[in-house]
Specification:
With about 375 residues, the protein is mainly β. Helices cover about 15% and strands about 35% of the residues. Strand 14 (about 200-205) and strand 15 (about 210-215) form a beta hairpin.
Length: about 375
């Protein structure tokens, strides 16, 4: 069995840079996904916030050096903030507002302050939890001292709860077994870190009776014969997609397979495999489209992220400027394909690095040259 991790698997982490992403005001706030790690840097702004965070902090002076974020929980539950920070102390505020009106409601003094902790540090937040309700927007604000340009690494750990206050598990069992005495195949999708079930889109391509697309965390099927070389594709919101190629399933007894998915990290860079272009051109070859369609599926399932397509080439002829342009054109062709496939162009950017960032600075064979010719994506 060979596992191929889709392009969004994290290969290299990088940080949001304040000079490229202005999230120091409410209007420029970062939209977050819960249970996903972030690394955000304070911009180092000087001066004091004259309105003291819309007059919610009248008793103390606060700086303009702020990081604004927001998110919308899909269920009611409890929120904990886990963080590591280079900043000695900071202020942390959490507000509740109607969806889409957070900044306006703050300005009108209509937002509800749920949590205000002044001059705190990460270790003081470990045991703090905040109750959240489904159907509302929540704004989380970090404030450091002026001129500070350090980073705060954090994760919004959110535990959905049922109406009775018990732990909510996002499970969906699809049991399509029609003959309990016949061979049965059971597929379970879980979070690699928490081991909890995940609702996922499961696509089976096996040339047998189980072929199809299903939406479940636990899938049960009857098998009519052995599968010697099948393909299973797993997609879930907030997670790296996973493809299992040349997958074997024996049609005897009951076989259970558990697939573990990892959350994607914003700010990470990953290689987009199996993308091919005509030599010296930006024309995408037909064999690339299955992988591009998988990237489209990932973007459809994760509507709150943006990506940067990064083109790289191998310049063994010393024509740097041409190669720089070629790498950007190739990245732009991928953007064009995604836009034509229904992805909002505002979520996509293209950049060409030419041969400035080779995997092998001095490639010695065709395999190493091919490794230099690549497409990568940066998840924002």
């Amino acid at each position: 069995m060979r596992y191929v991790i889709f392009a969004v698997v994290v290969l290299l982490c990088s940080r949001f840079q304040a000079q490229k992403n202005d999230f120091s005001t409410c209007v420029g706030k970062v939209s977050l996904t819960t249970n996903t790690p972030y690394s955000l840097q304070f911009s180092g702004k000087k001066g004091l916030d004259k309105n003291r965070v819309y007059n919610y902090m009248n008793d103390i002076a606060v700086s303009r050096n702020q990081i604004w974020t927001s998110f919308e929980p899909g269920k009611s539950g409890k929120l904990q903030i886990k963080c590591k920070s280079e900043v000695d102390t900071f202020h942390l505020l959490i507000f509740k507002s109607t969806v889409g009106d957070g900044c306006l409601n703050l300005a009108l003094k209509k937002a509800e302050p749920l949590f205000i902790k002044t001059s705190t540090e990460c270790k003081q937040l470990d045991k703090v939890s905040v109750d959240l309700q489904e159907g509302f927007e929540y704004i989380v604000l970090f404030i450091a001292e002026e001129k500070v340009k350090k980073t705060v690494d954090f994760e919004l750990n959110f535990q959905p709860l049922s109406e009775k206050g018990t732990e909510y598990l996002d499970t969906l069992t699809m049991n399509l077994v029609y003959n309990k005495t016949a061979p049965i195949y059971a597929l379970h999708v879980i979070d690699e870190k928490t081991k909890k079930p995940i609702r996922a889109r499961i696509s089976l391509q096996t040339q047998t009776n189980i072929d199809g697309t299903y939406f479940a965390s636990d899938l049960w099927l009857n098998l009519t014969r052995n599968i010697r070389s099948g393909t299973i594709k797993i997609d879930a919101e907030g997670y790296n997609s996973k493809d299992l190629l040349n997958y074997k399933i024996a049609s005897t007894g009951i076989q259970h397979d558990t697939i573990k998915l990892t959350t994607f990290k914003r700010g990470s860079v990953a290689k987009l495999d199996e993308i091919y272009f005509a030599p010296g051109l930006s024309t995408i070859l037909d064999e690339s489209y299955p992988r591009l369609l998988r990237l489209r599926d990932f973007l459809v399932l994760n509507p709150n992220i943006k990506i940067e397509i990064q083109g790289h080439v191998n310049d063994d002829k010393g024509i740097g400027l041409f190669m720089m342009r070629l790498s950007k054109k190739r990245a732009e062709r991928i953007v064009d394909f995604l836009v034509e496939s229904g992805i909002n162009p505002e979520r996509l950017t293209a950049i060409g690095f030419g041969s400035a960032k080779p995997v092998y600075p001095k490639p010695e064979n065709e395999a190493e040259k091919e490794a230099n010719r690549r497409v990568e994506i940066l998840i924002r």
